[in-house]
Amino acid sequence: MTAPLHVPATGAQLLKYTAPGIVAEILARDPRLIIPVGTCEQHGPHLPLGCATIIAEQLSDDLSDTYKVLRAPTVEYGVNVVTAREAVGNSSVRRKTLHRMLNDLLASWEGCGFREFILITAHDHDPHQDALSTVITREARVRVVDLYAIRLDDLLEGQPEHMHGDEADTSLMLYLAPELVRMEWAQDFMMSREQLRRYRRGYLRVPKESAGSIGRPSLATAEKGRAMYERIRQRVSERIFLTPAPEE
Questions:
Q1: Angstrom distance (rounded) from CA 154 to CA 151
Q2: By the 8 A CB rule, do 214 and 166 touch?
Q3: How wide is the angle at C-alpha 180 spanned by C-alphas 147 and 236, nearest 5°?
Q4: Other C-beta atoms within 10 Å of 234: how many?
Q5: Which of 38, 69, 115, 144 is the most buried (most CB within 10 A)?
Q6: Strand 70-71 and strand 13-14: pairing?
């Protein structure tokens, strides 16, 4: 016997579970739509493949709950960094594929009345960001939120900035979903700032000496993750939801 499907226990306004008539009522008072865009990509042996997706979804749910803005189903796949060896479970799309898919989705939603789209991602690979930032609509506003564009360096101990499967990713996951983190498998591996820049642009593969993560995940704690998450939520609230968007 098939188990019944239950709506997740969250206060978020989830489009997936909302009837058309209720969507129309919500749109009448707030024509915005939050869209989390994730990845299915290794972040080292200690984190789940959906690490970036989980972080983006949690923030999207919290913002939807707080501001009563509809939240779209998650776009689960993004543009991954090319690695030196294939990681089991990794799945990626090309930049133009993600770009075209988002164009199609936003065109559909714009056609039924949405007037502003807020794309939220926790993946700072340049081709992935480019796919989001170049989405085109007829008239609706598109706002892209890169969580790691928010300054976190003062909350990190062993690295100057966010890297990959690092102290920041691991701390956030220890705070948001500790049951999915295997700290005993975490391995540190550092890169220079120039190497990191080339890596994010897709010009450099993950070195064979790395387990897949870049940075110092061994220094991660749930306390750091809480401080990071609260700052991210506050900054996004201030810049996207509490401040009117500039006129085109």
A1: 8
A2: yes
A3: 15
A4: 12
A5: 38
A6: parallel
Average pLDDT for the chain: 91
- Cβ contact 93:77 at 8 Å: yes
Q: Cβ distance 77 to 98 under 8 Å?
A: yes
What pLDDT sits at residue 11? 87
Q: Is 68 exposed, middle or buried (0-12, 13-18, 19+ CB in 10 A)?
A: middle
Q: Are 57 and 104 in contact (CB under 8 A)?
A: no
The two structure tokens encoding residue 15: 């489009």
* Single-letter code of the amino acid located at 69: V
Q: Where are the domains of the chain?
A: 16-236
Q: What is the pTM of this model?
A: 0.91
Instruction: Kindly state the average pLDDT of the residues 4-23.
Output: 84
Asked if residues 130 and 78 have their Cβ atoms less than 8 Å apart, the reply is no
103: CB partners within 8 A, 6+ apart: 135, 136
Q: How far apart are CA 248 and CA 70, in angstroms?
A: 23
**CATH architecture observed for domain 16-236:** 3-Layer(aba) Sandwich (3.40)
Tell me the pLDDT band of 205, cut-offs 50, 70 and 90: low
d(CA 148, CA 164): 11
Count of residues making up the chain: 248
Burial per residue of 12-26, b for 16 or more beta-carbon CB atoms within 10 angstroms, e otherwise: bbbbeebeeeebeeb
